[in-house]
């Protein structure tokens, strides 16, 4: 059923999650509080369009996200991109969410991205259409706000039009604003974790225990 247009903004968090780790979880948790979101919809990519193929299969990555987010009532998992037989483009994901049988056209949606991903936005498929479909919230390190002067010219111009320093205003429209929020710095990367797993080293306290158990059970990320 479509979600109520009167609901608070819904965060949208997409990624390969190869594997999902505590840095991802902390970003989603802090975004929910900082931006006044009703919750976060996690959307694992099936076939990422702008990066190498993930090491784990789409269904395995989906299963790990479900395990990692279980028990948090503010988190839900969307399998739509894993089940789609096409490359995953963010603009198409948001168009799917805007259908009447999903979130609908009026629910405020907030796309969560990191600072590095935002700086690369002009390389994304139909990137300027993103602002017609969602707000964009950028996570940055505490004390290191986004350096607008360092952004590509087209993106800096877009920033000047869309930036908003009041996250509370996200609830007033379905899309079109840029906001930022500082998140606790956690030097964790999926690349680092895959290397640890391949070498047989411990990933304890980097991954949720349920995800570690799933990786062990299915022998994921091990060198052949």
From TrEMBL:
Pathway info: Cofactor biosynthesis; NAD(+) biosynthesis; deamido-NAD(+) from nicotinate D-ribonucleotide: step 1/1
UniProt keyword list: ATP-binding, Hydrolase, NAD, Nucleotide-binding, Nucleotidyltransferase, Pyridine nucleotide biosynthesis, Transferase
SUPFAM superfamilies (UniProt xref): Nucleotidylyl transferase
Enzymatic reactions: nicotinate beta-D-ribonucleotide + ATP + H(+) = deamido-NAD(+) + diphosphate
GO BP terms in the entry: NAD+ biosynthetic process
Keyword Phosphoprotein assigned: no
EC number(s) given by UniProt: 2.7.7.18
Keyword Transferase: yes
Entry's transmembrane regions: none
Cytidyltransferase-like domain location: 12-195
EC top class, as a word: transferase
GO molecular function: ATP binding; hydrolase activity; nicotinate-nucleotide adenylyltransferase activity
Pfam family name, one: CTP_transf_like
Function, in words: Catalyzes the reversible adenylation of nicotinate mononucleotide (NaMN) to nicotinic acid adenine dinucleotide (NaAD).
Family per similarity comment: Belongs to the NadD family.
Name under which the protein is recorded: Probable nicotinate-nucleotide adenylyltransferase
């Amino acid at each position: 059923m479509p979600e109520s247009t009167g609901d608070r903004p819904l965060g949208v968090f997409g990624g390969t999650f190869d594997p999902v780790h505590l840095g991802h979880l902390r970003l989603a948790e802090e975004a929910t509080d900082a931006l006044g979101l009703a919750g976060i919809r996690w959307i694992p990519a099936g076939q990422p369009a702008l990066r190498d193929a993930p090491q784990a299969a789409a269904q395995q990555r989906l299963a790990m996200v479900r395990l990692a987010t279980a028990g948090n009532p503010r988190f839900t998992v969307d399998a739509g991109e894993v089940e789609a037989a096409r490359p995953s483009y963010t603009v198409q994901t948001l168009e799917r969410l805007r259908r009447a049988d999903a979130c609908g056209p009026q629910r405020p949606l907030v796309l969560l991205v990191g600072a590095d991903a935002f700086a690369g936005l002009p390389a994304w498929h139909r990137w300027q259409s993103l602002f017609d479909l969602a707000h964009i919230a950028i996570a940055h390190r505490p004390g290191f706000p986004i350096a607008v002067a360092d952004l590509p010219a087209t993106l800096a111009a877009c920033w000047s039009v869309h930036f908003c320093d009041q996250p509370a205003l996200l609830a007033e429209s379905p899309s079109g604003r840029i906001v930022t929020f500082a998140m606790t710095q956690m030097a964790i990367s999926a690349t680092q974790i895959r290397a640890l797993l391949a070498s047989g080293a411990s990933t304890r306290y980097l991954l949720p225990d349920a995800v570690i158990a799933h990786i062990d059970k299915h022998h994921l990320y091990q060198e052949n």
